[in-house]
Structure formats: C-alpha cells, structure tokens
Specification:
Elements: E1 3-6, H1 16-25, E2 30-36, H2 48-54, E3 61-67, H3 75-81, E4 85-89, H4 96-105, E5 109-114, E6 132-136, H5 152-162, E7 168-172, H6 177-186, E8 190-193, H7 195-198, H8 203-210
Parallel strand pairs: 1-8, 2-3, 3-4, 4-5, 5-6, 6-7, 7-8
Residues 7, 32, 34, 65, 172, 192 line the site of zinc ion (ZN).
Length: 211
C-alpha cells in the first residue's frame, strides 16, 4: 500500500504540537517537513528549532525536505533536531555523492529531491547509496499549487532506474485523490500531501482517500 507523508506546511503553525499528534492518530506513515530559506525558494518556513520542538510529541519518522541553497552546511543541525531522513535538492549539491555520505555519517537516511526541470539522470551514479527519491510535481516553495502532469513520465523512468533497490519513490506537490492515482500507476510508493490532508480537518478520512 502506498505510504502517505503529510506535509506540515499546511498545518496550523500556531498549534503544531496538536497537529503532529493528530496526524499520527490519523494514520500518517511519515512526517514531511518543508524547510525553506527564502533563497533557493521564494518562501521562508521553519528550521531545526521547530523540528526539535515537535520531536517529543510523535514517533513518526521525520523527513526534512531542505529547500535551501546551502544544505551541506546545515546537515548536522537537522540530525541534532531529530530528523530521521534528510532530503536535499540535487540542484544545489555539486558533490551530491559526498552530501549523501555526509548524511549517512550522521546516522540518517538520505533522500534526493528533483525540481520539475531537473532530469532523473543526475541520480544514476548515486542510486546505490540512496534511501529516498523525491520527485517534485510543482516548483517548490508553496503549498496548494497545480500538479504538473509532465512529471508522471519522470516518475515511471525513475521507477525503472530503481529496479530492485530498496529506495522509496516519493512524489511531492499538488497531490489529491485524482493525481494520486496517476502517480501510483507510474510507480510512486509514497505521496507527500499538504492541502489534501488538511482540507476540512478530517485527516484520517483524507489520508484514506489518497491511498
Ligand atoms: C512545496 C512543498 C510541498 C508542499 C506540498 O514546495 O515541498 O511539500 O507542502 O503542498 P501541496 O500538497 O498543497 O501541494
Ligand atoms: Zn516538500
């Protein structure tokens, strides 16, 4: 069954403690934490202090999606804050292989995210050491954007590249019950969703609809 990773970006930021407790009860498989620096993407969210603050309230795996210009300088901050997976953008990691090693050296799992305009070929020589691939189906920066259909072919290509490796293929941006079916058919095994999980407040029902 496809895994659901709610994105905290759509949560009530004035009540994060309660939100993470509710998400775990609602059946979320992982928590997706959108870290934005106002530089790599045109928006600012939260950093390690907020992640550390919510860590005691849930056992869910934390995936920190770093939408920042200089992830290499920040990896340790997120490890100390309690992240389990750190996902970096290939576009800002000239030595991607080395960055993945640095994440593993901190005892965490490593993910690589690709912007819509980035080719899947950048993954070829790091596949053997990757734990997660995050295909962006919107240009990162904001929740509630429209799903980009032209990324479905990329998801299918990456599914083939992964072959029998133990790598989570995750999709992020514009996921709703309709687009969820498309990306699942293309081979995704995890869906990140903000708007679709939080809309209306019945998180369990919304998560069920995405599965
Ligand atoms: C976008 C973020 C996403 C975002 C998804 O830059 O990386 O995780 O929260 O939001 P929705 O599901 O609303 O498209
Ligand atoms: Zn994200």
């Amino acid at each position: 069954m496809v895994k659901i990773a709610p994105s905290l970006l759509a949560a009530d930021f004035a009540n994060l403690q309660n939100e993470v407790i509710k998400l775990e009860k609602a059946g979320a498989d992982m928590l997706h934490l959108d870290v934005m620096d106002g530089n790599f993407v045109p928006n600012l969210t939260f950093g390690p202090c907020v992640i550390k603050a919510i860590r005691p309230y849930t056992k869910l795996v934390f995936d920190a999606h770093l939408m920042v210009k200089n992830p290499d300088e920040m990896l340790e901050w997120f490890a100390l804050a309690g992240a389990d997976i750190i996902t970096v953008h290939a576009e800002v990691c000239p030595h991607l292989d080395k960055t993945i090693d640095a994440i593993h050296a901190l005892g965490l799992k490593a993910g690589v995210a690709l912007n819509p305009s980035t080719t899947e070929n950048v993954l070829e020589y790091v596949l053997d050491k990757l734990d997660l691939i995050l295909v962006m189906t919107v240009n990162p920066g904001f929740g509630g954007q429209k799903f980009m259909d032209n990324q479905v072919a990329k998801i299918a290509k990456i599914r083939k590249l992964i072959a029998n490796r133990d790598i989570i293929l995750s999709v992020d941006g514009g996921i709703n019950p309709m687009t969820a079916s498309e990306v699942k058919a293309a081979g995704a095994d995890m869906l990140v969703a903000g708007t679709a999980v939080f809309a209306g407040g019945n998180y369990a029902e919304n998560i069920k609809a995405l599965r």
